[in-house]
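<purpose> Linking amino acid order to shape
<body> The protein record starts here
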Amino acid sequence: MSERNAKIELLQPLLGQKPWRARLGVGSFLTFDFGRKVKKENHWYGEWHLWIQQCEWSLGNGKREIVNSDSPRNLIELAVRNLEKHVLTKVDFSPTQSRTEFTFSGNIHLRCGPYAAGSGMDTLRHSELWMLFMPNSQVLSAVPVRGLSVEPASAAEKASV
């Protein structure tokens, strides 16, 4: 098994689960909580906490886009919360394009990747596209050029502040 496949295998425990919370955060950041609820610093999180950040993303049903990272916030909030009704069925990561596709039941796809060159946000092209905080105090991150990496959660939390 390749190193990339071994890292994407870390997402296996999420497959077949519905996020119990799916939310729009600051800007166009998205967060998803899976697994049992854990209280940390007076906030509830999932033991598996997925944070999509610093990237362009689109949410669609089949080939039709429903919303994307530039859509009006009220539409994003509705579409993202709807994911709480759907099971995560598959995760694909393309290291050559630094793109990830999260597939949910109902043929719903959340696709994310680096900002396009010249977008004004392309200075963030080497930032984490997403981070998955895991119950073992590790974080799986997708970063353009580097691909998937695993590090202690404490190091990731310091870097994201």
User: Anything to note?
Assistant: Residues 73-81 form the longest helix (9 residues). The chain has three helices and eleven strands. The chain has a mean pLDDT of 87.
